[in-house]
Amino acid sequence: MKELRIGLLLLPMLMAPVAVAQNKGGQTETGIVVAKVLWSQHLEAGDQLERKGNFAEAEKEYVAAVKEAERVEGGEEALITSLAALAVMYGRREKFPALEQIARRVLPLSEKVYGPDHPTTAAALNNLAESLRGQGQTDGLEALYRRALAIRERVFGPDSVQAETVLHNLGSLYENRGQHRQAETALRRCVEILERTAGSGDSRVALALSNLAHVYTMQRSFTRAERLLTRALAIAEETLPPGHADLATVLNNLASANLCQGRYTQAEPFYRRALAIKEKALGPDHLEVAVALNNVAENLRVQKRYTEAEALYRRALAICGKMEGARNPRTAAMLANLALLYSQQGRYTEAEPLFKQALAIDQESAASGNMDTIRLLTGYAKLLRGTKRKAEAKRLEEQVRALVAELASNNYSRFTVDVRTLAKPHPDYSLGHPQ
Fold it and tell me: How far apart are CA 57 and CA 67, in angstroms?
């Protein structure tokens, strides 16, 4: 399952001043002025409602602002600004299909109004990549991120915070794809940029250190990971309120480093503290809460505390089903986790339908064939062997070997697949940055 990139740091798309529209197409000056006033009012109302957490009403206001901008000939800049506000909100709420629609609309509009090398165009490129990555896609995203990064570096400088924003997203993509060396290079540069621009004690540095540490955890370089995480936690606790969602990001990744070393009792309080923070900060039905529930459940599962783990998996699945629908890759991963739990208890008749459901969803996903697919096939193959269906198990294991070879040929980091392990703890990232 793709990690849920927690700790959202959203930067709005460049808000360019709106030029006075010309009197074209029969529009009266009064009509233009009225449309601009209404546009401004809707945009401001949307912002205020969003700040209060009233997203449904905020969306209506932003959509109304879009419609008013569309009424004004020559009002493309106002239209881009309105769409940018929607993009930010959709990114915060992880409404990735909606974000994709906005990005695909803004990108050609920005290229027409501002040119192909403008920061607003870079924002649209970044948003398009983030929207697709949020839907489980990875192919073709590197080119989008790299084009956005090149624009940012050219306009703001290679060591600017604006460049770091896109570089972080590129590093997260590499990590999603298992390209740990490339991820390490990108995320290390993020740390260096933020230390220079924001200072070594800034909370953003804590998040960047946490992200880099997770790469080391996946490389099993635990000493380096723990050193960075210890520093990240000290910075986060010093600079952030105790209930801040970004603090949960660091706690989660510290827990994951312990879990990957088999230190389950040390991991548990970190996972539970991260869950408590997210529930309080985001509400009980947020997608990030679902990931936190999954992670606590994983730590319980490996300790064979199956009853506790099952309840948390089911709650996480209920949240994902309500917020994303039943056929989302994230839902598939959690179904697979619950299936693994049943399989480990010998409850094969309960586990197998979940594995099949998860596989069906995975095969529909644009991201099918990644590490999550490998874990899913590995878990199902173990169930088949446990039920004496060796021929079926062998076919799945052959698929796993083929996928491993394909990933390795595509310059992914070397890895091994342990048949005992299907699910992994999901890292928290300072969320990919829609602009």
Answer: 15
Rounded Cα distance between 355 and 46, Å, is 42
304 and 266 in contact (C-beta within 8 Å)?
Answer: no
Q: Using CA atoms, how far apart are residues 354 and 229, in angstroms rounded to an integer?
A: 35
User: What are 162's two structure tokens?
Assistant: 């604006």
Do 402 and 374 contact (CB within 8 A), yes or no? no
Amino acid at 65: A
Is the four-CA dihedral 249, 86, 321, 360 of positive or negative sign?
A: negative
CA distances from 177 to 38, 137, 141, 217 (A): 45, 10, 11, 15
pLDDT at res. 28? 60
Question: Distance (Å, rounded) from C-alpha 232 to C-alpha 204?
Answer: 9
Per-residue pLDDT, 333? 86
| Cβ–Cβ under 8 Å, residues 123 and 84 | yes
CB atoms within 10 A of CB 264: 18
HSE at residue 389, side-chain half, CA atoms within 13 A, is: 13
How many CA atoms, within 13 angstroms, populate the side-chain half-sphere of residue 308?
13
Given a cut of 70, the residues of the chain with pLDDT beneath it are: 1-34, 324-327, 366-369, 408-435
How far apart CA 349 and CA 330 sit, in angstroms, is: 23
Angle at 55 between CA 51 and CA 59, to 5 degrees: 110
165-195 pLDDT, tens per residue?
A: 999 999 999 987 878 899 999 999 999 999 9
Give how far the C-alpha of residue 3 lies from the chain's centroid of Cα atoms, to the nearest Å.
Answer: 6
Residues 6+ apart with CB under 8 A from 164: 189, 190, 193, 194, 197
Task: Count Cβ atoms within 10 A of the Cβ of residue 290 and give its class: 0-12 exposed, 13-18 middle, 19 or more buried.
Answer: buried
277 contact partners, CB below 8 Å, separation of at least 6: 242, 243, 244, 245, 247, 248, 251
Q: Which of 136, 141, 110, 139 is nearest to 123 (CA)?
A: 110
Output the pTM of the full model. Answer: 0.80
Compute the distance between CA of residue 418 and CA of residue 374 in angstroms, rounded to an integer. Answer: 10
Using an 8 Å Cβ cutoff, are 77 and 15 in contact?
no
Distance CA 255, CA 297 (A): 13
Nearest-angstrom CA–CA distance, 361 and 379: 16
Interatomic CA distance for residues 66 and 81, integer angstroms: 9
| Cα(416)–Cα(271) distance, integer angstroms | 26
